[in-house]
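Inverse folding, one chain.
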């Protein structure tokens, strides 16, 4: 699955903030639109933070009570 497709799926359930620091670490903070819980993913590569956020989204969708 391409990163643009993963991002589109993430954005359906989360509000995201992308940031980068002086060491080129990329921060993706995802806030669940329903529960308002947040999770931050950090890596040097954009593709890695997208993959981590997508994986987190899939795990949250499988959790009972969601």
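Residues assigned per position:
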């Amino acid at each position: 699955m391409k990163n643009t497709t993963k991002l589109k799926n993430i954005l359906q359930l989360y509000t995201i903030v992308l940031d980068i620091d002086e060491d080129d670490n990329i921060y993706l903070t995802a806030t669940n639109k329903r529960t308002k819980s947040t999770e931050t993913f950090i890596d040097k590569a954009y593709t890695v933070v997208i993959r981590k956020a997508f994986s987190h989204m899939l795990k949250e969708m499988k959790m009972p009570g969601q």
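The beta strands are 14-20, 26-32, 38-43. The chain is about 40% helix and 30% strand.
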